[in-house]
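This part of the workshop introduces the protein records we will be handling. Backbone structure tokens are a discrete shorthand for how the chain folds in space. Once this layout is familiar, the rest of the handout is easier to follow. The record below serves as our worked example for the rest of this section.
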Amino acid sequence: MLPFAALTASTLLVMSLALPAAATCLSCSSGGSGTSADLGAAGGAASFFSMGTRWLVQQGVSLRAATGSFDEFGAVTAPPEGGSLLTAQGLLAVHHFPAPGLSLGLQAPVVGHRVEGATWGMFGSLAAAEGPARLGGGVGDLVLQASQALGEWGPLGVAAWGSTSVPLGTAVGEAERLTGLGYWTGALGLVAVVQWDDWEASLNAGHQRPLSQPPPENPFALGPTGLYQLHLSRRLSDAWRLGVGANGYVGGWVAPSGATALPSAKPKLVVSAQWAASPFAGVRLALGGDPEGLGARNAMRDVTVYVIGYRYVR
């Protein structure tokens, strides 16, 4: 799932276009890309970075710890005293390039939870619960993706993308067993990538909405939702890149009746380091968090560590 203000994003893009750009070719990926190991942006930007290969394979592992919640008035609250919720996720993403500028892909997750002294409340909040620590998990929702490059203008490229999630995960039951949404979703968006000198900026924006009725017992049902992601990276050497970015959503929780019941927003800041073993393979380490005062609203806060490996295959 995809999770800065629009003014910041547009300002950065304008600044990027105003800078003198080195002669480059996005679709050649001659200088490498900071999106190669970014699972969030790859669905859109993969169109540009086939590296002359037929496949891009990404394998990711993340560990997330809940750091905050919200009450019925929308106020930020701490997790239940003595409670914790840890989530580990393994993700396999495969993109195929059947033609220049076209990518087809899928993401298949496996999710595990450790829950102690806490459970999910309504609209994705955390509530206190008694009992010993519990472990659970399973297969998550499958995501199918496609993207098509719309054009390249010197250092700037723009692509359109679409995705749908297939509800294979468990959506109702105990907190430690929940691994999916329980309903189909569809999303459409645009991604823009700019490269100049040793810098790269990408802006990814889209819209997601349910395609089927969420289960009444599901505490995670979001209605029509805006998705966004901004990533800026700098190449330090042939092997190393450092990056910073933000991603998140703006939407609303849906009540069992189907009406929008509660507005929700969740921005996340991410810092990353990417190491390329070769032009065709590498690893990305990233740390994401939800600082207070950044615009979160009726959304759980967390800190997440990511390790993502990628490889282009002929």
